């Protein structure tokens, strides 16, 4: 996973590569046309000489009016040669992907929106590589799969309950900000916890926020490697700490060590202090198990700082 800065720099490099490609393609087309039409090449050379003549007149105090008139005639001759060869002036201009900044990545002294679009796509690719993000959207969450029989613990059916939870998650994603609450989705395997978490991630990412997804097991393993490799500078931890929204999936599957507990505490505490929301999913439904597994210090921050939702029903994957 890359930090925001790393992702932004990667997006800038991508946009710069687009510009270089567009310029090279335009130059290739121009050279091919000039090779096929010598008169066009000569007209272009005459236009270049006239431009240099105007610059020389301005620098050495020559006759500017004469030089301007020569340049105007050369421009008309070049335009006529282009038409006679069957081309238009646009045929030799670079075809930039972004017409706003012409693939420079900057517009009005600030980064162009094409850079943000590229960064968002690169982040989406990262999440897709680690999860089924492309399959997990609100529209594909089927509440009809849940039982319509009343669940005693709920007082309503799982179908009605999950419909309400789906609507809550839609609203959460639509109004997402740094003041959004942390969420904890708990319940047995295959009840849609990861699906809804990723659906939120997809919508929040589309809204222009930076989102990171990782399983707890992958995070713990990577942070363990980084901790003993002093050349990496804990890049995963930095990326997780600064993301606008972090999805930490499958808590309880990671290998617990004192290092894991220490890093989790640092991550959770930092995100709480900087008001960066986190969505946790877990198969653990007993809060006492959380305390025993993660220590009271970590569990209290995780459970006390979250809006908790317990998922009900039967394994939807088996269905």
From TrEMBL:
Residues 179-303 form the AAA+ ATPase domain. InterPro entries: AAA+_ATPase, IstB_ATP-bd, P-loop_NTPase. One of its GO terms (biological process) is DNA replication. It comes from the Bacteria. One of its GO terms (molecular function) is ATP binding. SUPFAM superfamilies: P-loop containing nucleoside triphosphate hydrolases. This is DNA replication protein DnaC. It comes from Gemmiger formicilis.
